[in-house]
Specification:
186 residues; alpha+beta; Phosphatidylethanolamine-binding Protein; 3-stranded antiparallel β-sheet; 17% helix
């Protein structure tokens, strides 16, 4: 009888440890609450949208052991593109010692990104932040911000690579990821 409570306690502790380990790697934004509406400051300027197209501030903690770099993928799965969604920001080769991206870091020049970080081409056709801009009347879209902890310091990405190819390489080298979602509609 004494073994049963001990076994139950061990199983409960093991379950809590697994849950804590799984929830440890987090990504957050001071500018966008999880599942919250994205402010006009971060909305695209163009395609009929009149935002400021500023990339939001992001911060993270609890990266998995062995992390050598990070990559950020921002994707709208609700875009009416025949199933591929829309890539809004792709940043890779973020150094392992980085813990944040400042608001406005997603400019084409990329000068506010951590040293060595690179931006991939988005579905707007440029290598910088492209804010939300769903079609009028298409409902609220979901913008998934996913940070991957990578087992490599740098990805082997050819010049001009598509966001899908970068995403493939990111996923092939991911040790784990942290995600939050913002919403926007017009």
């Amino acid at each position: 009888m004494k073994m049963l409570p001990s076994l139950s306690l061990l199983l409960a502790l093991a379950s809590a440890a697994v849950s804590a380990e799984g929830a440890k790697f987090t990504l957050a934004s001071a500018d966008i609450k999880p599942n919250g509406m994205i402010a006009n400051k971060f909305v695209y300027q163009g395609f009929g949208c009149k935002g400021e197209n500023v990339s939001p501030a992001l911060s993270w903690s609890g990266a998995p052991k062995g992390t050598l770099g990070f990559a950020l993928l921002v994707h709208d799965p609700d875009a009416p593109t025949g199933g591929s969604g829309w890539w809004h920001w792709v940043v890779y080769d973020i150094p392992a010692d980085a813990t944040s991206l400042a608001q406005g870091a997603g400019t084409a020049a990329g000068t506010a990104l951590p040293k060595g970080a690179k931006q991939g081409r988005t579905d707007f056709g440029s290598a910088d932040w492209g804010g939300p801009c769903p079609p009028v009347g298409h409902g609220k879209h979901h913008y998934n911000f996913t940070l991957h902890a990578l087992k490599v310091a740098q990805l082997e990405i050819p010049a001009g690579a598509s966001a899908a190819l970068i995403g493939y390489m990111v996923n092939a080298n991911s040790l784990g990821s942290a995600t939050f979602t913002g919403r926007y509609g017009r």
